[in-house]
Amino acid sequence: MSTIVPDKKNAVGAATGARNLAIYLAACLFVGFGLFPLYMMITTSLKTDQQTFAWPPVWLFTPRFQSYYNALFVFGGRSADHYLFNSLVVTLSSSALAVFLGAMAAYGLARFRFRGNRDVAFYILSTRFAPPVGFIVPIYLMVQRSGLLDTQIALIVVYTSMNLSFVTWILRGFFLEIPIEIEEAALVDGYTRWQIFLRVALPLVRPGLAATAILSAIFSWNEFLFASILAPGDAATIPVYLAGFSASMNIDWGEYMAVGTMAVLPIMIFTLALQRHLVRGLTFGAVR
Amino acid sequence: MAASKRADRRTALLLIAPAMLVLVAINIYPFIYALYISLHTFTLGRPTPPRYIGWSNYRDLLDDDRFINSLWVSFKFVAIAAAVEFLVGFALAFLFSAKLRGMATLRKLAILPIMVMPLASGLIWFYIFNENFGAMNWFAFLLGAPHRIPFLTDGKLAILSLVLADAWQWTPFVMLVMFAALQAIPEYVYEAAKMDGLTPWQTFWRVTLPLLRSAIWVVLVLRVVDAFRMIELIYLMTRGGPGGATETLSWYIYSTGFLDQDLGSAAAEAVVMIIAVSIIAQIFVRRLNYGAAT
Amino acid sequence: MPRVEFNRICKTYADGTRAVVDLDLAVADREFLCVLGPSGCGKSSTLRMLAGLESISSGDLVLDGRRINDVPPQARDMAMVFENYALYPHLRVFENIAMPLVARRRPRAEIRERVQQVAETLQIVEYLRQRPQTLSGGQRQRVALGRAIVRRPKMFLMDEPLGHLEAYLRVQLRAELRRLHERLGATTIYITHDQEEAEAVSDRIAVMENGRLQQLGSLVDLLDRPINRFVAEFIGRIPINMLPARLAGDGQNLQVGAAMMPLSGAQSAKLRSGGTDPLTLGIRPEHVALSSGSAGETISGLSGRVRVIEPQGDSTVIIADTPAGRVSALVPSGCVPSAGEVIELHFAMDCAHVFGADNINLLRAARNSE
Questions:
Q1: Could you read off the pLDDT of A182-199 as tens digits, one per residue?
Q2: Rounded distance, CA A10 to CA A78, Å?
Q3: CB contact under 8 A, C70 and A13
């Protein structure tokens, strides 16, 4: 009941030991629930088949890295590293493009008054809600017509567009927070508008650029639907490769989980760094 | 002055044009194209050219039991998942606001699932829910279940299993956003409430909750929209089954278009979905607008 | 019986900061007490402990004869006005003022009537339907005051309530605060760093520094009988002159530079018994007089060259360099020397203070005994 109002630590009548213990227990329980599936994924990738299918489940075992070795070097055809590399290319290109184009648009929306400014801004924001599955049919046909099926270009363009909504919206907020006087001073010093954007404004919103770049990267790295339809073959990204396992009758759980781990861990570790702006990014600046 | 205003407008145009171009190509044009396709028979991989058939794809939807079912399943899934995620996440936000040592670390660990590739979380939960060797059945056994529980192959359980997997990933998101919103409430408001003699319960209802209102809206709309379009968990865990019990609208569109290869019907379904989501999104945009005004 | 007693109250924060040290202070019923001090002196911590917003590290806080250290703020029946107003941003003015009554579940009709009454007193009736964000600072502060007085509490606690306001509004509002206090008669503790404000509103002033109470008294007490060097320097519209000095060999004069300042019998007795070199002479600019004189014939004056002239309306501050250091003098604007001119400065020694090496005012007791 008293947790309803956040208590200052040194306020009169503040937390008691029993209450603290209950809070710790509940928090740890939730963290445990959050980490358990990740733990299952990683341990299964280190188990033998017998250990995987054992009943009761095996909790203590000697880890072996055979599954990783298999996924990377032994499989016939393309192995996991090929798809990891595809993912990397698509992720980096689409994030860079989205952040750059988004920053330009955001600056234009934040700094120039013109009719329809708000409408454009809200339109860009509203594309965040476009259900991907609703667009998949026409986009598939467009990509097919232009001969870009199973290329990275198709994915890069689609991801750029999907990232633009929040990149633009968040950066617009960041630009609005720069005191206009800084840019006016640069204008008086003889900079052109374009130079001001590149040399004055962009460096000032560096935290925003970092946050939007990382969020774009998470999105592009994790995206599955468009990847599976637009690039099912040679240009496939890691989620598409991962999905391929579940189609086969005899799932090799060890390798499956090894690929899963390689798909999940890099972006997760990467993201722990951005904590500070995560909420602002995830909610379009509605909550900081 | 007028000249510089015109120059300003030109600069603004040049800045915004590239992004708008991409959005027109990948958002507006495809929507119009979807409308166009939805008025035709259009089958993937068949050489016959599309044939105009007017609104009959839409008329067919009304008689399509699978479509009606998918709307109902979507509604069930979204309602249960969003409610669970919101209520639990909201409560956890207060829990994690406790100013105790180590809480910041626990918070960082708690939000890790947000970053997991949705397809991979489907994979993990598929494994955990496995009837023969999954950990979930082991826990059920420990709790005294008389036999193996078919988490993914029983109609009623399957949708709840999906909710659990979705909640695993997104409850931390709700917690994180509500936590940040709680932090944004200035300390002095609580002090004023104490001096005014409000009990903790009164403070919660009369001060905290109203101040969280816009954050609550934002997080609810995001959860509703994103649960509505969720497809990865279904792809990996149930593929719409058993017997359509987990066939949401998203999955139905996907399977009509790319498993049954009936692009015309899929496009009609897609248009319905886009319009439905746009209505929800409007609420969100209005809220943001309201938030910006005050 | 005093209403509130602080008995050896200490506040030490978790990081080891000692915000308040051994505070002993009694506030009488219906008194208007100001706590005055520079920022970080512990005055806010003192008020917040009284309010119950901070826990008390040690000592006893007594209200009406009852120890209230562990009583939560809700049960202390004190109203607080915060420096940043602390209005509820999501509520209209009416609802903000009504909140303490709502908390006590008063009937709706009574709430309406009392809020209306308070709004009339504070002349904010026309804003009752607005939200705080749309109001000016002065209006917000009236709302905050309204919220405090609407429930007729035992005490008012005010934490720099006028701190964020423009000068003319502060002057206007502090007069209203004083009138309000005279009408309501509730015990009030008021924190400020502005001595004029403290003088204008309060019955007594408590000066704090470094977490310790330095001196308690009226502004005249503080000006004319500062207990130590800090109080002397902190109080006063124009900074007091502080000059190194020592007791002359005869014990009858104070030597400042080359000049000899004659001491009264009581003064010299006090200095001879307690004086330890080095001494510091403190003399307010109001007590320095000028004569444009020929250099050389210094009897009780110090000669110096005029450096800066600061007109302040009907009087003017003259700052001059003397062999003993910079000295400022407040003179009528009619007889101002020109910059660069050599002048003679005469100190009214009966108003002088002399501080020992431990910064205690050695003459304070002497003057008291006169």
A1: 888 888 888 888 888 888
A2: 61
A3: yes
Instruction: Considering only the beta carbons, identify the residue of C55, C71, C73 that sits closest to A10.
Output: C55
Task: State how far the Cα of B249 lies from the Cα of B67, in Å rounded to an integer.
Answer: 7
Which residues face C254 on adjacent strands?
C247, C261
How many domains does chain C divide into? 2
Q: Which token pair is C235? A: 């109080």
Q: What is the pLDDT of residue C298?
A: 42
Distance from C-alpha of B180 to C-alpha of B190, rounded to nearest angstrom: 16
Expressed as residue numbers, the domain containing C309 is 238-369
CA A171 remoteness from chain centre: 17
B213 lies in a domain?
A: yes
Judged by CB atoms closer than 8 Å, whether chains meet at C13 and A10 is answered as yes
Give C302's pLDDT tier (boundaries 50, 70, 90).
confident
The chains found to touch A (3+ Cβ pairs under 8 angstroms) are: B, C
Q: What is the ipTM of this complex?
A: 0.85
Cβ-Cβ pairs closer than 8 A, B with C, add up to 59
**Pair type for strands C342-347 and C301-312:** antiparallel
Confidence of residue C114 (pLDDT cuts 50, 70, 90): very high
Q: Do the domain assignments include residue B17?
A: no
CB pair distance less than 8 Å for B15 and A54: no
CATH classification of the domain holding C184: 3.40.50.300
- CATH architecture of residue range(s) A76-282: Orthogonal Bundle (1.10)
Residue B3 DSSP SS3? helix
In whole angstroms, give the CA distance from residue A184 to residue A191.
Answer: 10
Report pTM.
0.84
Which residues of chain C are within 8 Å of residue B198 when distances are taken between CB atoms?
A: 74, 99, 103
Question: To probe the interface with B, which of A9, A23, A104, A133 has the most B CB atoms within 10 Å?
Answer: A133
CATH code of the domain containing B235: 1.10.3720.10
Rounded-to-integer distance, Cα A138 and Cα A153, Å: 17
Contact C54/A at CB under 8 A: yes
Q: Where in chain A is the domain with CATH 1.10.3720.10?
A: 76-282
In order, the DSSP letters of B6-33 are: HHHHHHHHHHHHHHHHHHIIIIIHHHHH
